[in-house]
Amino acid sequence: MKHTISLAVALGAVWMLWSGHTEPFLLLLGVLSILAVVGICWRMQIIDGESAPIQLGIRPFVAYLPWLIKEIVVANLDVTRRVLAKEMPIAPTVIKIQTHQRTDLGRVIFANSITLTPGTVSVTMSGDEITVHALSPTEAEHDTECAADMNRRVVQLEGS
Amino acid sequence: MNWMLDAITWVLLLGGAFFSIVGGIGIVRLPDFFARLHGGGITDTLGAGLILLGLMFQAGWSLALVKLIMILAFLFVTSPTACHALAHAALSNGLQPQLVEPETQTCDEGQQP
Q1: Which of A38, A89, B42, B110 is most buried, most CB within 10 Å of its CB?
Q2: Across chain A, how many H-helices and E-strands are there?
């Protein structure tokens, strides 16, 4: 139930913020659209903690995102340096990382965070093991440390 | 005040353009498909991010700002997903990454000192 309500609220906020109109007719169209979307999603039984992850609260934005952005900037500068260097000091490596997340959503957030950080791409995920392609061993090494940190932070994000 | 916002926008747009070009250079210079994905990653994150951030300073406190933030949010969710889908498709169709060390090393960072 809380997922349905949060989905409706989110859709309403999106409608208001993207249209910016307050005429009754347009608001009525908005309400009808939201009811239709929520109704269809409800019939498809896809409203759950994955499509409307209200259980995460605001933690993704206040606790995780700033740290992730910092990591992305650091990794970007590193990869930029490697790409522009004359001799291009890269040494592609494949590493496997154990995930400690309990939910699929947490694993997806973790794998996407790895891919979002330049220099590492998650290639496959089977069970709780992610195969990561890294641009260089030092990157892989740094990333194993970074991934441990990232892993822990995503676990925190999942909460209880 | 206005010239300051314009100056910030200029710096951010030029920075975004720089990283987008670096991403392109990376795609051309890097040796194989999997390594080239990393080049694209620069364009996806800092390139697009800095350009959108620059535009946000021009938008000011308006609904356009919200839309720019949403574009950035969608980009940050979709681009790694697309990147992962490409890498996964390549691997499952038999393309092997060029590696320096042939054996894959297993690291469980939980047991690392």
Answers
A1: B42
A2: 6, 3
Instruction: Residue A123: list chain B partners with CB under 8 A.
Output: 34, 84, 87-88, 91, 97
Instruction: Name the residue with tokens 């926008």.
Output: B9
Domain residue spans of chain B:
2-92
Q: What is the ipTM of this complex?
A: 0.77
* pLDDT tens digits along B34-78: 888 888 888 888 999 999 999 999 988 888 899 999 999 899 889
Closest by CA to B26, choosing from B14, B38, B9, is B38
Domain boundaries, chain A: 2-44, 57-158
Question: What amino acid occupies position B9?
Answer: T
Q: What residues of chain A lie within 8 A of the CB of B71, using their CB? A: none
pLDDT confidence of residue A142: 66
Q: What's the pLDDT score for residue A141?
A: 66
pTM (predicted TM-score) = 0.79
- What are the tokens at A64? 């995780």
Assess contact for A105 and A49: CB atoms under 8 A.
Answer: yes
